[in-house]
Amino acid sequence: MKSKKLSLPYIAWMLVFTMIPLVMIGITAFKDRQGNFSLEPFANAFGYSGVFFKSLWIALLSTLICLVLAYPLAYLLTRMKKSSQNLIQMLLMIPMWMNFLLRIYAWVILLQKNGPLDTALSLLGIHGTYIGNTGAVVVGMVYEYLPFMVLPIYTVMSKIDTGLIEAAQDLGSNGAQVFGRVIFPLSLPGVISGITMVFVPSASTFLVSQYLGGTDDIMIGDVIDKIFWTDSNTGSAISLVLMVFIFVFLVIMNLFGDEEAIA
Amino acid sequence: MRKNKLSVVSKIYIGIILFFLYAPIGVMIFASFNKSNTTVWKGFSLKWYGELFRDKAIMNALGNTLIIAVLASLLATVLGTAAAIGINNFRGKKRAVIQNVSNIPIISPDIVMGVSLMLLFSFLGVIFHFEMGFGTVLVSHICFCVPFVVLNVMPRLRRMDQSVYDAALDLGCNQWQAFYKVVIHELMPGIFSGLLMSFTYSLDDFVITHFTQGAKFNNLSTEIYSMLRRKIPPTINALSALLFLAIIIIMVMVNIYERRAEKREIKRGN
Fold first, then answer.
1. CA A2 → CA B40, B79, B178, distances in Å?
2. Helical spans, DSSP H, in chain B
3. Torsions phi, psi of A208, nearest 5?
4. Which residues of chain A are within 8 Å of residue B151 when distances are taken between CB atoms?
5. Residues A182-187: what's their mean pLDDT?
6. Residue-level pLDDT at A122
7. Does domain A49-262 have CATH number 1.10.3720.10?
8. Which of A22, A220, A224, B257 maximizes the CB count within 10 A of its CB?
9. Range of the domain at B268
10. Is residue B250 domain-resident?
11. B193 and B270 fall within a common domain
């Protein structure tokens, strides 16, 4: 198939449904409600900078926890029998297929007052509130995105040439040295793509904090959702800032890792 | 890598992670059989399942979700496979630009894609007099599905031996015959995983649908969203349990298919 023509329908499609909408966001962000050029939307958007940084903080925290939990798991996976590897991989993916809202709602049930966790801990004499705070939001995020961290790290680790490990062992490295000098450096592309796959969606997600967080845990995605229906100009300005931020983040991550792993 | 037996600590660690992943789902499934609509156990009952099937809004939303997922994944697969073949014939800078633009829906935050499509549709709606609904949701789903198809088919195209296609032409096929008799079989695993990914992303989508659904159309996610906003009905637990069951059945089926495909590849000597 030597024809380039086959891609024409898709190129036209992308022009209408990818490029034009983004251009429209760009234009709307620089207009006031009357439709004249204005920087007012950005001035309004600036008012949400606190929410913006809080979102980044929650996303960062979630990403780090995912990394700490996922890395050992990915490593252990590569040391299992192939059949157990497939099984665990499948078990990691099944919850991901569950509806996004139901997964978050499941945590509402689990953490709510007089819910299973509260009841169990009360029996041990521990009383507390487990929902409506930043911690609950982070738990929800980690639950939501953990497999996105495990799978790329695991994929990269399982492709490491066993010859390299054997060579390191032959040359006198012990287990820790093999890990530190061979496996860890070679697994970094997976780590980079895992960080990207967790950070980007968790920084821009909405609803998670509405269900699990308190009033001051509102995230930038929730703000866009709330504001866009009434004030699409400010909504566009915030979206544009978020988009630019994510883009810069991806470029920086790209400098560290190779492009293939991230795409 | 050395395949020694995992230590007890490692096994416990894996166990804890799996517990973390399944405990919330387990709690919901457990609650779905509870006679009471509180979290206190009042005895076994299937009444929430009965109520679920009588809930017209949910059944309607489920139907919509399936129709959208089937149509969006099929159309995206056709569009994406054709696109991948076409893009594969571009070289250098042009190719890089097209591929990067194609990846935008994957890279950009869902919410930005959602609001940008909403802007487009409400603008076009004023000009062409239509309201957002089934059509706009379908188009939006195709938008985020096609890039996955392209990404899955592309590596297969690169690995494909060009001479197979040329041989088909030499043996008297025209371009179309060569495509559906030869090329498509080489691409099939990529097409299939693209289709599957599209289907699952479409089934699960909330954000994009939320912004492009208009006033009357609901898929399962948006219906659950409005359910959770009104009051929290216990039928939602029954719904989760059934979805979980469906996912497991699909997963097992896909696994069997992949095993067979692997065996076939091994037989062919790949």
1. 66, 17, 12
2. 8-32, 47-54, 56-88, 92-107, 110-128, 134-159, 162-170, 175-178, 184-204, 207-212, 220-230, 235-267
3. -55, -50
4. 263
5. 88
6. 86
7. yes
8. A220
9. 234-270
10. yes
11. no
Domain spans, chain A: 49-262
Residue A194 has pLDDT above 80, yes or no: yes
Look at residue A79 in the predicted model and tell me its pLDDT.
87
Measure A244 CA to nearest chain B CA, in Å: 9
The reply to whether B63 and B129 lie within a common domain is yes
Distance CA A66, CA A61 (A): 9
Q: Do B220 and A99 touch (CB under 8 A)?
A: yes
If you measure CA to CA, which chain A residue comes closest to B229?
Answer: A211
Q: What is the pLDDT of residues A64-97, one digit of tens each?
A: 999 999 999 999 998 888 888 888 988 998 888 8
Going by C-beta distance under 8 Å and a sequence separation of 6 or more, which residues neighbour residue B38? none
In a domain, B39, yes or no: no
Residue A110, CB half-sphere, CA atoms under 13 Å: how many?
Answer: 21
- Return the number of other C-beta atoms located less than 10 Å from residue B239's C-beta: 25
In B, residues 43-102, which contact A (CB 8 Å cutoff)?
A: 79-80, 82-90, 98, 101-102
Against a cut of 0.80, is the pTM above it? yes
Task: Summarize pLDDT for B132-149 with one digit per residue, the tens.
Answer: 999 999 999 999 999 999
Same domain, B151 and B240: no
- Look at residue B261 and tell me if it is in a domain: yes
